[in-house]
Amino acid sequence: MNTVQLECFLAVAQYLNFSKAAESVSITQPAVSHQIGSLEDELGVKLFVRTSKSVSLTREGIMFISDAEQILKIAGSAKFRLSEKLEDEPVRISIGCHNQAELNVLTPALREMSRLYDDLLPYIDLTPFKSIDNQLKDQKIQLLLSFKSPHKQPFDYVELCRCQFMCLCQKDHPLAKADSLDVDDISGRPIFIERHTCPDEIFALQHRILENGKVDKIIFCGDYESAVAMAEAGLGFMIFPAIGDAYKGPLKAIPIEGVKEISFGVYYLRSQLEQQAKDMLGILKNQFAK
């Protein structure tokens, strides 16, 4: 496995088009196809489904994205460290999160961290896929922001807040007239986040809304960001827990009553936590304690 193979893989995964991928990595399309083929042979799996009209990622291809990005990051960091002589080693901290809502939580915390460490060098791994847990397990990230999983995890966990489910829709949407909603009151066109990027509790509530029989055609989105974009475009409503006041967009957030709040916090490995990660964890806890 080499960096050229990984760069070609990520380019095709981004564009889902071999010609555009070839342009982005500045090699020929046959060369890109060869690199993808040799990578698939080495891994023993197919990463893409290719037809005469389309290219799509396989399940294995989706799972491999974060690994490929991480390997290229490590290779780039190693090259930089070996080619540059730094007088002072920067303070590094690596954090993982799944979506923009979680990423928004980090902004004020990173601002506070920069006051503690002048030479702070953070790395943020933002991926919607649940495989990001592997980055924590493999100690490639130190902290992982996440809703608490209902399944037992081999990590330590600290809760930052309890999150109430909200219905997000445009302010002129029929649902926006209500100050709060019961699940059975929710009707219209839902924008659902697909299962592979969706926390279990959100998926369960989406299914419950579907079962009430009051919804129209469903729009499925691959992640939180695209669901928000669809809702802001007025194409329907979406369901998501409110992480503090992380969402600051134009949509109205209507509380959904009678649904259990879910825990949002930070996963980490206590035995591997370095001082800067401990400081970041403390800042996050104070941020939500206010």
From TrEMBL:
Domain HTH lysR-type residue range list: 1-58
Family: Belongs to the LysR transcriptional regulatory family.
Gene3D superfamilies documented for this protein: Periplasmic binding protein-like II, Winged helix-like DNA-binding domain superfamily/Winged helix DNA-binding domain
Entry annotated with the keyword Transcription regulation: yes
Species of the source: Ruminococcus bicirculans (ex Wegman et al. 2014)
Residue ranges the record marks as coiled coil: none
Keywords: DNA-binding, Transcription, Transcription regulation
Pfam families: HTH_1, LysR_substrate
Listed name of the protein: Transcriptional regulator, LysR family
PANTHER family: HCA OPERON TRANSCRIPTIONAL ACTIVATOR HCAR, TRANSCRIPTIONAL DUAL REGULATOR HCAR-RELATED
Entry keyword annotation includes DNA-binding: yes
